[in-house]
Specification:
The chain is α+β, with helices and mostly antiparallel strands. It contains 22 helices and 15 strands.
């Protein structure tokens, strides 16, 4: 049953009856003719009434709707009300505006559901409570059953409303729970999304947020979920996420996900992802596209050591943006809020969720862990692209975050940068000596490439991505702070895999060391491939057994014949004495006109033998493959 409005759905427990006359309405109206909002409404309504024709009036209504954040239908009603009652109606408002009108039973029932949803490690959210109420209302008369007596004990009015298909709106549910939590915690909420004219105070200056891609904020955290290794389904640990956000629109511009503790390398990879245009395949199942990219003017971070590193200094120098440190921790409320959303709105629904408190961690977290790092990346990409960036901007009505990002450009479109330049700037650096045949030792592997042949006995700079270390970019060694020149791409020797992360490589090395095996290129690759080979061999053995069994069943069926075979083909041959061999060689003539009679005569005229010899003598097995065919040809 469709949900009704508050006044329709809960007539029994409204705070006051809906006013029917102007005299009753005055009890709820508050006049303020000096407010800027009132003066703005007066100007917009006056422009509508002064319009010379219908087209101009239609345009004036559209402008007023856009300026006030309301629909054109609401603006038309405002005009009609002004014409009927007067301009004073534009300056009125309800004294109880912002308050929810709901009975005490409903209030207590919603709070009870919230408390129940946070027992024994569960983390229910506001929307799930609203969905549960909606599901109860869909049952209707079924709620009168005795099994619901305990649930609705002391909540008779709630049961009656649900049976009638009435339930509070999601806004009312959110207000009730938030009011309860504020009363319980008595804490001040940290700053949320940026508003018009917001400033960020840094250690060097105060920055005013005025347009898109002006100020990006970067931070990282450890997510509240345990991930597993795809091959053996064992728990690896909790991942780290490094996030980049645009301060003007609140859009997520890029991120990096991994098991390594966040450092300057992870910050560089997150920046690289944010700066480049992003394209994803069909396996991500995206409904929208990730349109946010470009180069920022400022990057604002906290005072962690990875944000003060030489690596990040080189990145900012190469890309020409300014680095700033937040003056106060509270200035990072924008990016901290999305970390909270990721944990509570997404990860809490999956197995392996640990919660934010170590003391209250669910004991079944490790047993229920079920997703891998790649699966988590797809989940987060879908959330950022299809949900978060396309969600309503909280401080401006009827505007999405992505729409605000597009509309906030001083230039026509964001600046594009060559991907190779980002590779040079953002990949982590390692210096290695080039050995014979253009090979280098790195991360316990041997990398080789023809491009290194002329650099033997020299040092080169290697840049790599922790998400895939099967290939490495080689450069000349930096001199006097200048980045080296690109030499080429080198590959891990004896590696046929397309991708392998550094975390996966370290995990395999640890397993091999624990097993007492030598760790080298071949051992790592063989360990990874052995599982696939074992599975393939098992499948082959099963197929071979099935074929053998089918062949045996087929032979049993096809070997049955109506003709009695003198010498059956499948009979196990018995021993033949030497005298029998001589008898067969001397007396048997396959060209005889009556082969059966000749054989019988030879046996009759044979001298009698002892019991042991007679028992051993049998008809010899002829060298005929198909006895039935032989009889048809020679009978």
């Amino acid at each position: 049953m469709p949900r009704k409005t508050t006044s329709q759905a809960f007539p029994a427990f409204e705070a006051e009856e809906t006013a029917q006359t102007d005299e009753k309405q005055t009890k709820h109206l508050l006049v303020n003719e000096d407010s800027p909002e009132y003066l703005k409404k007066v100007d917009l309504i006056d422009a509508i009434r002064q319009a010379p024709n219908k087209a101009a009036r239609r345009d004036a209504i559209a402008d007023a709707a856009k300026a006030l954040g309301k629909s054109t239908r609401t603006i038309k009603r405002m005009v009609e009300k002004v014409e009927q009652v007067g301009v004073a109606t534009l300056a009125v408002g309800r004294k109880d505006k912002g308050q929810y009108r709901i009975s005490k039973q409903w209030h207590d029932f919603i709070v009870k559901l919230h408390k129940w949803g946070h027992r024994e490690g569960s983390r229910i959210n506001h929307n799930q409570i609203f969905g549960y109420l909606k599901a109860l209302a869909s049952k209707g008369k079924k709620l009168e059953d005795q099994k619901y007596n305990e649930k609705f004990k002391d909540y008779s009015q709630v049961r009656e409303d649900l049976i009638a298909g009435h339930y509070p709106s999601h806004v009312t549910v959110y207000k009730v729970i938030n009011s309860y939590l504020e009363e319980k915690n008595k804490t001040v909420r940290h700053p949320g999304s940026p508003i018009e004219g917001q400033i960020i105070q840094t250690t060097e200056e105060i920055l005013e947020i005025t347009h898109s891609n002006q100020i990006w904020q970067i931070d990282h955290t450890k997510l509240d979920i345990l991930l597993i290794y795809e091959d053996d389904k064992k728990v690896i640990g909790r991942p780290y996420i490094t996030l980049v956000m645009d301060s003007y629109s609140g859009c997520v511009t890029g991120f990096y996900l991994g098991f390594e503790a966040a450092g300057s390398h992870e910050v560089g990879l997150a920046l690289r992802h944010a700066i480049l245009p992003k394209y994803y395949g069909e396996e991500y199942e995206l409904q929208k596209t990730w349109e946010v990219y470009g180069i920022p003017e400022y990057v604002v971070t906290d005072r962690a050591k990875e944000f003060k590193s030489e690596h990040l200094k080189q990145i900012s120098l190469q890309l020409d943006f300014k680095r700033r440190l937040r003056a106060f921790p509270q200035a990072g409320g924008l990016i901290e809020s999305i970390f909270d959303k990721i944990n509570k709105e997404i990860l809490s629904l999956y197995g392996g969720y640990t919660g934010s408190s170590v003391e209250e961690r669910p004991p079944e977290a490790e047993k229920t862990a079920c997703i891998t790092l790649d699966q988590l990346e797809k989940i987060l990409v879908r959330y950022f692209v299809d949900h978060y960036n396309h969600h309503d901007y909280p401080r401006v009505k009827n505007q999405k975050r992505i729409e605000r990002w597009k509309s906030g450009f001083l230039l026509e479109e964001p600046e594009l940068i060559d991907e190779r330049e980002l590779d040079i700037c953002l990949m982590k650096i390692a210096i290695r000596n080039v050995e014979k045949y253009g090979s280098v030792n790195f991360l316990g592997w041997v990398y080789q490439g023809d491009c290194l042949l002329k650099y033997e006995a020299k040092q080169v700079s290697l840049r790599y991505d922790k998400r895939n270390i099967t290939t490495v970019l080689a450069y000349t060694r930096p001199i006097n702070g200048e980045p080296g020149e690109f030499i080429g791409v080198i590959h891990a020797r004896d590696c046929e895999q397309e991708r392998m992360s550094l975390g996966e490589l370290n995990y395999i090395k640890k397993k091999l060391r624990n097993a007492g095996k030598e760790v080298d290129n071949s051992s790592i690759l063989n360990e990874r491939l052995s599982r696939f080979e074992d599975v393939e061999q098992t499948r082959k053995d099963r197929r071979r057994q099935r074929r053998k069994k089918a062949q045996q069943e087929h032979e049993v069926k096809t070997n049955k014949s109506k003709v009695v075979e003198l010498f059956p083909e499948n009979q196990v041959p018995e021993e033949v004495t030497t005298s029998e061999k001589i008898l067969v060689s001397n007396s048997f003539d396959p060209d005889s006109p009556n082969i059966v009679n000749s054989i019988d005569k030879q046996v009759i005229h044979e001298k009698p033998a002892t019991n042991q010899t007679a028992k051993a003598k049998r008809r010899p097995k002829l060298g005929v493959k198909d006895w039935n065919q032989f009889m048809r040809d020679n009978w």
